[in-house]
Amino acid sequence: MNAPANGPASYFPAIEKKYGRPVQEWIDLVRSAPLTRHGELVAWLKAEYGLGHGHATALVAHTRSHSR
């Protein structure tokens, strides 16, 4: 039995449903962005892709905590 996702990953199903892209695409976008600071990345996702603050924050937090 799979345990429910915790932390930022708990937002992933809602992100995929609302914005129609797999989470991995969002993670790849964050990794390829020319920005490096958390707040800048969140603002960029919100401005360029229309993500809500919580969804953008979850994607950035997860991506930065699992950086290559």
From TrEMBL:
<dbReference type="Pfam" id="PF14117">
    <property type="entry name" value="DUF4287"/>
</dbReference>
<protein>
    <submittedName>
        <fullName>DUF4287 domain-containing protein</fullName>
    </submittedName>
</protein>
<dbReference type="InterPro" id="IPR025629">
    <property type="entry name" value="DUF4287"/>
</dbReference>
